[in-house]
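Annotators were shown the component list below and the corresponding predicted structure, then asked to write short factual statements about the assembly.
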Amino acid sequence: MTNETPISADIFKQSLRLLAGGVCICTTAMNGERLGLTMTAVCSLTLEPPTLVVCVNRDAGAHDMMRATKRICINFLASEHVELAELFSSTSFKGSGRFDPAKWTDMKSGMPALNAGLAALDCSIIEESTVGAHSVFVCEVKAARLNPEKEPLVHFNREFCELLPIA
Amino acid sequence: MTNETPISADIFKQSLRLLAGGVCICTTAMNGERLGLTMTAVCSLTLEPPTLVVCVNRDAGAHDMMRATKRICINFLASEHVELAELFSSTSFKGSGRFDPAKWTDMKSGMPALNAGLAALDCSIIEESTVGAHSVFVCEVKAARLNPEKEPLVHFNREFCELLPIA
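Structure shown to annotators:
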């Protein structure tokens, strides 16, 4: 292990690469426009009410619409979704055109939900706070669609990975 | 995929099992006592300042000491650490005795850091808020020790897993 070093931007970025995370696409929609972004900064919070925390950069294209609608759908990606994860983190192809109608079906709320993800969680943003360049959204889950038999897509050290149970 | 259903406690628990997460042990220490707990509710927040979000149940043994010291060490576990993850989530064996001196070396701050984890991030809690039974801690990283060549331990669907890069 390296010796203890005071944190620097480089060391912190290295550290974050070492935190494995399930890959999600968080979506929102308003006035016929749909937006979404790939992220791993999603974690469970409370069972009662059923909440998760989602951290979104205020510069992200979908951020302002999420704040305006107070509604997002958190989609957990499956291991077959590497291209979709890349599409929703692309800087060149943005906006509603990312949503292939064959792959996405709206929740009753109107939020875009991926048909073949492990979970599509339709959420209301019930609290928000600001830290640095990011908003921290506390998201209360209102409705769900699940595919519990699927395998997840995980991001670690700048690579997409699948899981292997430890015997 | 299942049809859309309004959320219930059961459906929400099922959903959370489908979110893969890197396994961490978050530790703290005060007056010679050391506490720690296994968790996956850790996610990155901002690069500037370098922060992560950590969500801790207020009933967790380490919660009150974390609030009192405003200091925690977030340790990212390696795939060899299944037994350690189980030890720090055990309800029968608690307290300082969990910390084998051969495996743990304090950071300069006094926070217990795992020698063989992927990362030991020594943090100050700079903000806290309450949601349901949990505290949401915004943790600013002050110092780090890294083992970037290690493989992470991941939790998914009540199993410990290791990663396999997708070719």
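Statements collected:
1. Chain B touches chain A through 78 residues (CB under 8 Å).
2. The first helix of chain B runs from residue 9 to 17.
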